[in-house]
């Protein structure tokens, strides 16, 4: 018929009426876009494009056939569109979600003088809402007020819906309060807005409000209320489900998926499945809701089984189905299953749909098939921001940092502005890579584009600066955050602990409690290490009590953290008891206990625990061996651990390799150490540090220095440990010229700014005899710590300058530094070497007053000081009043002093104690013999000599050596 119509056209005259009738009769016959384009051309040629009824019918026909681009291009030609035409096109474009074009049509009509009516504004407001064009929507609101349509109920409802969807929920509430008799549609729009914007309590308030007005909630009302139930507990969901049943909506096809999702998200999978199975006919939305519920609850096998059953049933999977079921492959751990789903996607014709592609790409990456993810990404067009974010995340999650940074830059070059998800991915990448500058650039970008107000992005920024050791920045961002959640607090607490700021971590913990936040397991695990550092057992006990009260102690990770806390706070029995009562110990549990034993130098307990671990068929990992190796008391034990690692296939990662090297160095097996060195990664500075340390332990400083020169030749950058080893090398070689050269190198490389290195240099110059250089370095230190003062005090003490040591000790306390056990050891030793008895006594007393329990080494200093100055009775009284048993070295020191000062009475008492303590050692016999001989008590001297002969104890002969080097 269309062909005959075209033939009839050739016989037409140029009569306008005849042409109009022809076009009106031909238009319904045109079903193809090509025919309509031809007809449009004829309309233009004959000047009928301004014929409003004809053009309206033409555009209406195009919209009916979904040829919206043709309808829009025809509309653009019209100079003065009519109101009916405007309403027709805005409705069609809105129905097809072409919201940008809706606003274009409205603006063109407004510009040409065409007015809008109560049919136009609801569609334009819907477009503004979908595009989140807040200002444009407010302009429409102003136009409505000017044209007098503000009382129209449909327009009022559209305005409420607009403000609700763009975050202006206060405006929405004000609007509904102005309506004299709002209908249920208006209330539903408000409830939907509250639900969409997260005002959960207001949702229920309005729901109760409309029930009090005798409105009967409909399906739309319940569809907005159901998702909110999850935040108030599943019991609210049960009540709402009962209400829906009572109203006759329980089997409504819109509400059933919502109820399944509600129960699924609450973990009530059985209830969700019962609803699902109770339906005689199931639409695709119901299948999708049930599959998604299983996938969200990590029930991957159930999700896959249901998907397979769906394929055998009537409904065909849609995009939502695939987006719901594809993530289950991650928990399933099967690349074959994912590839099968991928094939189903292609068969169903969704392989170009961006949300499905993004889901596939994400799971390929999580299953470590980055090449497949990359291929999928590159072959998919067009790409959107979501697909770019997924690709960046894929690189980051698989440790491909450089590729992730390149993808991030390419995304920006492609014209995509990174959103909060992009910022989170790039910050995670920069944290792992230690790239502070790109991370700070991402922060600047987020500030410029307003992404920093996003809570998740702010939390990522906190974690990034904590990882980059810039805690001050993290604190500033945290204090400026308007909204904080549990993740924000946990990030700051763990960040403070990781950066050695235990006191700050505890301050955040207390503040968190004051602001009413409930701790979760992560909070407790994060705060426990700060109890170790501050030796705050009281806080640790509080945390443990809270965990018991909230039933969190069943978690293995928390139990392991509690074991570490008790062990490191010195409560070994509590830590061991907690370990023994654990029903399911993991390798981390064993490692936690071993690490604690290592902290307290309980080497034999570590070996026993390792043996028990193997006997109980636990599988030690490389962290276990890192704890065991320093505890080995013989080369044979160390080699056995090495053999165990080789036999069980534990990879010799760099930390384990270097630990083995240090173990061999301890037992002077330098050849084995060198063999491991040649096996290691030569670009890793830790391996070089280990081999240098090994030679230093063997007193082979020249070879150690040659290794340092070799690493410089290979252009490997030394770290702080390398430099500390280098300083030890100079100390062994005792070469002033080399020391000065090393100092120049350190200044050149800016290592002098490190406090530990500066302290080591002060110690080096002091021990090399250059006290003036040591003092100059000490005075130049911009930031001193307790150890800086200790090292300088010790330097004066070694050289017998007790007065200078005392003066420095006094300055230290005046400037607010609190001396520790090592400081007291150094100052007491200085007093001993200088014979400053009264000053030594005063310092020893002040040490006890400050709550520092004197150890054997402090008592040894005091005994040596009193012994040197002849105060032997006082020294003996000190030994008798010690809280712990005196060591053999203390007794030998006092016995030697008795011999020097001729105090034979005290000497005899001390000698008897020594013989009881070391009956097989020749030293106490020889000194006691000399004491008796000096006193002329030859009978007692002969008795000592005879006892030595009877026990076959012989004095080790002395010998001299000469170094040819």
Automatic annotation (TrEMBL):
One GO BP annotation of this record: RNA modification
Q: Could you list this entry's UniProt keywords, alphabetically sorted.
A: Repeat
Return the PPR repeat spans: 183-217, 283-317, 384-418, 485-519, 684-718, 785-819, 820-854
Q: Record's Pfam families?
A: E_motif, PPR, PPR_2
Q: Which GO terms describe its molecular function?
A: mRNA binding
Checking PANTHER family in the record gives: OS07G0578800 PROTEIN-RELATED, REPEAT SUPERFAMILY PROTEIN, PUTATIVE-RELATED
Listed NCBIfam families: PPR
Put simply, this protein is called Pentatricopeptide repeat-containing At3g05240
Instruction: Supply the source organism for this entry.
Output: Olea europaea subsp. europaea
